[in-house]
Amino acid sequence: MKLRYSQTSPYVRKVLMVAHETGLADRIELCPVNVWGPDNPIVRENPLAKIPTLLTEDGMVLFDSPVIAEYLDSLHGGRKLLPPGAGKDRWIALRQQALGDGICDAAVLRRMESLRPETLRSADWDSRQRAAMVRAFDRLEEEAGDLPPPDAPTIGGLAVLSAMAYLDFRFGHEPWRPGHPTLARWFEAAAKRPSFLATEPPTE
User: Fold this and answer.
1) Adjacency order of strands within the sheet including 53-55
2) 26 conformational bin, left if phi > 0, alpha if psi -120 to 50, beta if neither
3) Which of 8, 34, 145, 148 is the right S-S partner for 154, CB 3.0 to 4.6 Å?
4) Whole-model pTM above 0.70?
5) Is the pLDDT of residue 38 over 80?
């Protein structure tokens, strides 16, 4: 398998953590790509020209991190990161993934806005995205008891973990821990997992 990726993408990090948790990391060739570069080959594989994009061993092209994560989770015989069946545990894990990915969506939009010329930036747009991030963390703090224990990760826990780490990486000037003590304790324990340590982005 080949994964079109960037080391700094939180969505890629989630997928790479899934690969490590499922024992599939050694089967994936990492192919760095600059989605903003001219003549980017990824556009021939993914019409959205976004990462992560996975090229499977049988020739399929999969994109969007939840799809790739579910595909990888289907390839191993161990404990599943997406709880099977249609019970409450599955929907909680999927909702946590949506919250984690949504935090990343808002954070990436803010990051891109900050790179625009100052005269073109919108303070209202930035404020709207920041408010969404704050609300998501508040909800996660309220529901922290539903987060998976660090020794039994789910796709929801990995998505939240990746989002928290991305905020530390790109928004260290806006610490998320104040007001979220239970989340902070959970993060400190979950961040010791080998899959998290193996997917650290480069220091910039």
Assistant:
1) 29-32, 2-5, 53-55, 61-63
2) alpha
3) 148
4) yes
5) no
